[in-house]
Automatic annotation (TrEMBL):
Keywords: Methyltransferase, Transferase. GO terms for biological process: methylation. This is Class I SAM-dependent methyltransferase. Residues 58-154 form the Methyltransferase type domain. Pfam families: Methyltransf_11. It comes from Winogradskyella flava. One of its GO terms (molecular function) is S-adenosylmethionine-dependent methyltransferase activity. The lineage of its organism: Bacteria, Pseudomonadati, Bacteroidota, Flavobacteriia, Flavobacteriales. The keyword Membrane does not apply.
Length: 266
């Protein structure tokens, strides 16, 4: 098995640097969040519905806004993230907002070594699986952390989007849909603040839909649905047009921007 420690270390350093920038960004709108606005988007709210009294594990939670939004809705939440700066800020927000979420700093693939309880819901969203070299251990961990009858839910950018290189502004198709080789990117700025002078150094991997679905099935989960959507809730790709409903689309939309999967542990 390939040792990806160096890749993870570089990514962790980049995410640690992103935390302070993102916390001050318009995209994360910390003031509105602290005042009670949810950071959750329509897809996940619709998929998971009433979470009151349910236990929820949020994988790759960044600095915890979504975790804490679920917590405000009555879920008993644990958030996991690679970045110690992210987890530190999440814990501070949790205390400031007088919520009862817990946060654990670890590589998401090692979650079962740090979190031993099982959950009604395991949840992850928007820009998560591309940081993982292999989805089989990820799916196995999800199955381990779910109660029987529990649900896993992911909403994520569509793999077609990651076939393009966006560094020079003009999307250029460069990578395989299911590329196994690691992809290295180095650029100035971050998706939440493109004017930032921080240098993002990132290692990632492309995973096609069949890989995601088959990893979950192999881990013993039963896929309830797979949906694809043309709209994105975030303006994080070049030349998107905002719609009346606040979502974003491409000018000439030829492929989906999002997919969502709900799977059950039976």
């Amino acid at each position: 098995m390939e040792d990806n420690t160096n890749y993870f270390d570089v990514n962790k350093d980049t995410w640690n640097k992103k935390v302070a920038i993102h916390a001050q960004s318009e995209m994360y709108n910390m003031e509105a969040f602290k005042a009670g606005e949810t950071s959750l988007m329509p897809y996940e709210l619709r998929a998971l519905g009433d979470v009151s009294g349910k236990s929820l594990l949020h994988l790759q939670c960044h600095f915890g806004q979504d975790t804490l939004s679920w917590s405000r809705m009555g879920a008993q939440c644990v958030g996991v993230d690679l970045s110690d700066e992210g987890v530190k800020l999440a814990r501070e927000l949790n205390q400031e907002l007088n919520l009862d979420a817990e946060f654990v700093c670890c590589n998401v693939l090692d979650t079962s070594q740090h979190v031993t309880k099982t959950f009604d819901i395991v949840y992850t969203s928007y820009g998560t699986i591309g940081w993982l070299p292999d989805l089989k251990p990820w799916a196995k961990m999800i199955s381990e952390r779910l109660k029987v009858g529990g649900a896993f839910y992911i909403v994520e950018f569509h793999p077609i989007l990651w076939m393009f290189d966006y560094v020079d502004g003009q999307p250029e198709m460069k990578y395989h849909y299911n590329q196994e080789d690691v992809i290295y990117d180095e650029y100035e700025g971050t998706y939440a603040d493109q004017s930032s002078k921080m240098v993002s150094k990132e290692y990632g991997w492309n995973h096609g839909l069949s890989e995601v679905v088959n990893a979950l099935i192999e881990a013993g989960l039963q896929v309830e649905y797979l949906n694809e959507y043309d709209e994105s809730p975030y303006d994080v790709f070049p030349d998107l047009i905002q719609l009346e409903n606040g979502m974003y689309k491409m000018k000439d939309q030829l492929f989906p921007m999002l997919f969502e999967i709900k799977a059950l542990k039976v």
